[in-house]
Design brief:
about 200 residues; Beta-Lactamase; 2 domains; five-stranded antiparallel β-sheet; golgi apparatus
Length: about 200
Amino acid sequence: MRGQDYSDLAEGRCVHVTGLLTSAFTAISHKAHAHGIECNINFKMQFMLLFSRQGKLRLQKWYVPLSDTQKKKISREVIQMVLARKPKMCSFLEWRDLKIVYKRYASLYFCCAVEDQENELITLEIIHRYVELLDKYFGSVCELDIIFNFEKAYYILDEFILGGEAQETSKKNVLKAIEQADMLQEEAETPRSVLEEIGLT
C-alpha cells in the first residue's frame, strides 16, 4: 500500500540482516577483484540527499533529469517527511512511485530514493559504504567536513556511484583513485619555474 512504511520489520532484525549483507557484499567484491572481474551491483538510484537535523541540505546528487524547481520541491518534501519520523521507526518508506531509504549518522541524514522494485537492504548498505569511504578519507567524518570539503564528498560519491549505479564496490580501489586525484591536484597547484614549464629541468 502506498504511503505505508515497513514498520513490521523489527529494528534488530534489520540490523542483523544488514550486517550479513555487508559481509556478503564485501566477500563478493574481494573475490571478483581477485579474479580481475569488475563487480557492479545491480542497483538504480534516483537521487541522494545529505541533510542536517535542522533540515539544511549539505549535499545533493540527482541521477534523473529534473528542473531546479522540481529538485527544490522534492528536496523540501523528502527532508520534511524524514525529519518528522520518530527514531525507532523503520528506515524505509514508500513515496510516490519510489522507495525512500535513509540512515542517520551523528548529525547528518543520508537519504536515497530508489525504484520501487529495488532491495531496501542493498540501499542501506550502499549508504553505509559511502559513509565508510568518507570516514576513511576524512578520518572520523563530521558535518563540517562535508560543508568545507563538499567537492571531495562529491568526488568520492562519483567514484563509487555513476549514473545511479554502484560501479566500484572496493573501498581500497575508490580511495586509491581519490589519492591519485589529490596528488595530481597538488602537482598542478605547485608553482614551477620557467625552465620546468618548458621542460628543460
